[in-house]
Every structure is written in structure tokens, then in C-alpha cells.
Design brief:
The protein has about 130 residues and is of the alpha+beta class. The chain has one domain. The protein is about 50% helix and about 20% strand. A five-stranded antiparallel sheet has the order 1-2-3-4-5, with helices on both faces. Strand 3 and strand 4 form a beta hairpin. Helix 3 runs antiparallel to helix 4. The longest helix has 24 residues. The chain is globular and about 40 Å long. The two termini are about 20 Å apart. The model has no long low-confidence stretch (mean pLDDT about 85).
Length: about 130
């Protein structure tokens, strides 16, 4: 999936969340391999994360993080990280968030292993 395809998916997601991507060129430049900057955009209700390996968003008043897209590299790295954080976490709010992310990543990883596809789209967001 090209960086432009990821940006287009992020635009659709942002529009549905009521978030404006003010500088798409800056978002694309953050996706370059040597830079790898995560773009974080937000409004009063939602936060949106855009990276070359994933797109996710969260309601600012709920602990869940919802993935829109992820690739195999992100899923394997993030799943290991989430499991490490779960072992150390004491806050019920953080545990709920980590559990939600872990379940999404496990589902995506299993689906990608079964299909052989290196990308996973979490549900369909209708425009």
C-alpha cells in the first residue's frame, strides 16, 4: 500500500471524525522511511494517529483505540509492546485500553496469517 493510499484512507477517516488534515504534504513527508514520524491530529472529541504502518483513532472520552488499517510490521511490534505494558500496568483505565488494542491486533494478525496478506483493514468506515 503506497503512502498516498494511506493518506487517502486517513483523509476519509479524518472527515468522518470531523478532523481536518491541514497539511497533507507534511503527513506524507512523515511517512518517509528514514523519518517515520507519526502524525497526531485531534479535535474536541477524537484523536487520529496516522503512520506509514497504521491508522488508528480514539474517542477522547473512552479508553478504546480503534484501528482502521495496519500492516504486519506494526501489528507484530505493537502486540509485543502491548503485552509488555499489560504486565506492568496497574490502572484499570489503561488496562481496558491495552486489552482492546491487544484483541484487535490478535484478530488482525490471525487474519493476515490465514490470508497471507500483509495488510489488515479493521471494518469498513462508510463515508
Amino acid at each position: 500500500m503506497s503512502h498516498e493510499d494511506i493518506l487517502e484512507l486517513a483523509r476519509v477517516t479524518a472527515k468522518l471524525l470531523g478532523i481536518r488534515i491541514k497539511d497533507p504534504v507534511l503527513v506524507l513527508s512523515g511517512m518517509k522511511p528514514k523519518i517515520g514520524i507519526i502524525t497526531i491530529l485531534y479535535n474536541k472529541k477524537f484523536t487520529l494517529w496516522i503512520d506509514r504502518h497504521y491508522i488508528a483513532y480514539g474517542d477522547n472520552f473512552k479508553p478504546e483505540v480503534v484501528y482502521v488499517f495496519a500492516d504486519t510490521e506494526h501489528i507484530s511490534e505493537e502486540l509485543r509492546s502491548v503485552i509488555r505494558r499489560m504486565k506492568k500496568e496497574k490502572s484499570p483505565y489503561a488496562m481496558k485500553t491495552l486489552t482492546s488494542v491487544k484483541e484487535q491486533l490478535q484478530l488482525a494478525g490471525a487474519s493476515m496469517n490465514k490470508s497471507g496478506n500483509g495488510l489488515y483493514f479493521f471494518g469498513k468506515m462508510e463515508e
